[in-house]
Specification:
about 700 residues; alpha/beta; TIM Barrel; four-stranded antiparallel β-sheet; elongated
């Protein structure tokens, strides 16, 4: 009964709002970084003021076009008794003239000169407007990134505080009766107090920063999603950057426009106060209104001031000096801009080095941790692992990760500043103009997809739909299953050749996908080798556009029933199987890269076996399935990344489309994880399992 009453009240409220034109509360998702960028210009008062100034100047230009058209004038004179002069006209009481005149100097010289001057002023305002827009983007992006950096500080400071508290607890219990050793505890206490103070400071600071930024957009900080931005850095050539920056410099353009305006005014000063105005008119005269005489009149008014030469020369010189000053200012602006670009670029490059050094140090610390854990596991030389040692390593790793991510955010800020100095607003345009070629400019990471039912899309309309699907979803690599049915099809027709050629024409790579769990057993490896030879022979006997780009093995021994009892044995067998595959694929006329699918837990079973697998592969695809948050994905892959980074191979992260209820959930996870792993030198992109489930997910979204 209560529920029914509440429902009635709610419906009554809605009806009242509709009748009274009241706004009904709407629930909408929070604003992302990209959403705020789109709203930025609507809320920037400086930009709005300049746009109003530009509209005023455009109205002034329209007025100037009509200002010097023909002029209609009239004059009337009255003399009570006449003047009785010899000239008859002046002997009349009433004298009226109507004249249509045109000042030819103003029409031909002054008018065009004034419009040119207004156009030059519009160019100046346009330069100011573009500069203001770019500066707004820069300030917003730097403020947003600073908030993200403070988020990371809070997260890692909290982790450090927890680690220090564990160390303090252990050492206090260990040294409670040895006062002389308690100084070690005090040192850790000092570090904890320092970090706790920083943690509290940034917690307060970040609220203020969020409120200030949200207030600018007339929002609250709870209306904004504070997620990492997607920013792909491209190699920057200093000479190209300087050329682009000078070419697009608003300051340079501004001073050039000022110089042009001064030149226009210098030309206009030659005609100031000179009048040459022919006219056509009508004269009406007489002593009485009922006896007026009328007649036409034609003439010309010409005037020139006596001081024209002196004033004109001085004005002309004044504007010429102003023009020269603006031209020199433009050159100085270009010089200062180059110095600024070089300074920011060097800071950006230094941060690149610091990020790399931090990554290398993290690799060393992770390796040190691994060695310590290995000693403990194997009880090497009867050494017992001191938990404080691992906690101290954990604190060092957390501190170094914080350094690295702070360097990354600072580098992003400098990257945006370089975009601003280069006279652009969008990173993709900046990347395109600075890259050596279009391929580098696009800077694509892999976005792959598993295709198991290859025969269903090999030809005709299904093939066209599949390729269109890949293009619309950004898929740039397909793992094409080479099963028995496909092998039979290849032997009977050229459908596969045509399929791969069409993929390549669309800019999509193709990897030969194959694998069975039983291939890990020695007796079954010949099946794998036969399938590999088939693909290698296919490539050797096929023209370039129809060749495979890689071999993709999906063996997965952990799906076998016996895995639970023979994990290490099967994992070592897999390592031997991969070694055989690598030996074979390396001998072809054109070596094919070898890609291997692995789950997230192999490193926990046998690190040595996993190292052998990595050593014999070019790329690992980590199947990070059943993990729906960026944090869980990152936690599951970080150990494998550390290993692959050290061995110089590449990593693709695999996600399972079947586990997502909405397309946006999958896309957001790809974006968020991509932002977090972008600093990993082995990171190569994502892959989605599989085409069937991904298509269903998208079709479900489109049906809503």
């Amino acid at each position: 009964m209560v529920n029914k009453n509440l429902l009635r009240l709610f419906l009554l409220f809605i009806s009242f709002c509709a009748a009274a034109n009241c706004p009904v509360i709407a629930f909408q998702k929070n604003h992302t970084f990209q959403d705020l960028e789109k709203l930025l210009m609507q809320h920037d008062y400086a930009v709005a003021a300049i746009m109003q100034k530009m509209q005023a100047m455009e109205s002034r230009r329209s007025a100037a076009k009509a200002q010097y058209l023909p002029k209609l004038s009239t004059s009337y004179r009255f003399f009570g008794d006449g003047l009785n002069l010899a000239e008859e006209d002046f002997g009349r009481k009433h004298f009226l003239t109507l004249r249509l005149s045109q000042d030819l100097v103003k029409l031909t010289k002054v008018r065009s000169n004034k419009i040119d001057g207004i156009n030059a002023e519009l160019d100046i305002i346009a330069s100011q407007l573009q500069s203001s827009k770019r500066f707004s983007f820069l300030e917003f992006r730097k403020a947003y990134i600073e908030i993200l950096r403070n988020h990371s500080r809070i997260f890692y400071y909290k982790r450090l505080i927890n680690t220090y508290e564990k160390i303090i607890k252990i050492k206090r219990s260990r040294y409670e009766e040895q006062e002389e050793l308690l100084t070690e505890v005090l040192e850790i206490e000092k570090e904890r107090i320092n970090v706790r103070g920083l943690h509290a400071y940034y917690q307060t600071q970040i609220k203020k920063q969020k409120d200030v930024l949200a207030e600018f957009f007339q929002l609250t900080r709870f209306d904004i999603e504070w997620n990492e931005t997607e920013l792909r850095h491209v190699p920057i050539r200093e000479a190209k950057l300087l050329a682009v920056a000078v070419k697009n410099s608003d300051g340079f353009k501004l001073n050039q426009a000022k110089a042009r305006l001064a030149d226009i005014r210098a030309d206009g000063s030659m005609y100031d106060n000179v009048t040459f105005s022919p006219y056509l008119g009508l004269r009406i005269r007489g002593d009485k209104f009922n006896k007026l005489q009328t007649g036409p009149e034609v003439g010309v008014n010409f005037s020139i001031p006596l001081w024209l030469k002196s004033v004109r020369t001085n004005k002309h010189n004044q504007y010429k000096y102003e023009s020269n000053a603006s031209k020199l200012a433009a050159e100085h602006e270009a010089f200062e801009l180059k110095q600024k670009v070089i300074s920011v670029l060097h800071k950006y490059q230094l941060l690149d080095v610091q990020i790399k050094n931090s990554s290398d140090i993290l690799d060393l610390l992770n390796e040190k941790t691994r060695i310590q854990e290995s000693r403990h596991a194997n009880e090497l030389r009867n050494l017992k692992l001191d938990p404080v040692t691992l906690l101290e390593l954990e604190a060092q790793i957390a501190a170094k990760k914080l350094d690295r991510i702070c360097f990354k955010y600072e580098r992003d800020q400098f990257y945006y500043e370089l975009i601003y100095l280069a006279g652009m607003t969008q990173p993709k345009n900046f990347a395109y103009h600075l890259a050596k070629n279009r391929e580098v400019a696009m800077n694509q990471q892999t976005k792959g997809i598993w295709l198991w039912n290859t025969s269903e899309v090999l030809k005709g309309e299904p093939r066209a739909r599949f390729i269109a699907f890949c293009k619309s979803t950004g898929i740039n690599k397909v793992f094409v299953s080479i099963n028995k049915k496909v092998v039979s099809s290849i032997e009977q027709s050229s459908d596969l050749q045509t399929f791969i050629a069409h993929l390549h024409h669309a800019g999509i790579k193709a990897a030969a996908l194959m694998g069975e769990p039983t291939w890990v057993y020695e007796k079954n490896r010949q099946k794998m080798l036969r399938r590999l030879r088939f693909v290698l022979d296919y490539n050797d006997n096929t023209i370039d556009p129809a060749r495979f780009d890689a071999i993709h093995l999906d063996i997965e021994p952990h799906t076998l029933a016996e895995w639970g009892n023979y994990k290490k044995f099967l994992l070592n067998n897999l390592a031997e199987t991969i070694k055989l595959a690598n030996n074979l694929t390396s001998r072809g006329k054109q070596r094919l890269p070898l890609e291997i699918d692995i789950p997230t837990f192999y490193h926990k079973i046998d690190k040595t076996a996993l190292e052998k697998i990595v050593q014999n592969a070019d790329t690992l695809t980590i199947m990070a399935y059943e993990r729906l948050t960026a944090e869980r994905v990152m936690k599951s892959v970080e150990n494998i990344f550390a290993l692959v980074n050290r061995m110089g191979k590449r990593v693709v992260i695999g996600l399972n489309a079947k586990e997502f209820s909405e397309k946006e959930m999958l896309e957001n996870l790809i974006k968020n994880v991509g932002d977090k792993v972008s600093l990993e030198k082995s990171y190569a992109g994502f892959a989605i399992h599989d085409f069937h489930h991904y298509r269903n997910l998208i079709e479900k979204r489109n049906a809503l």
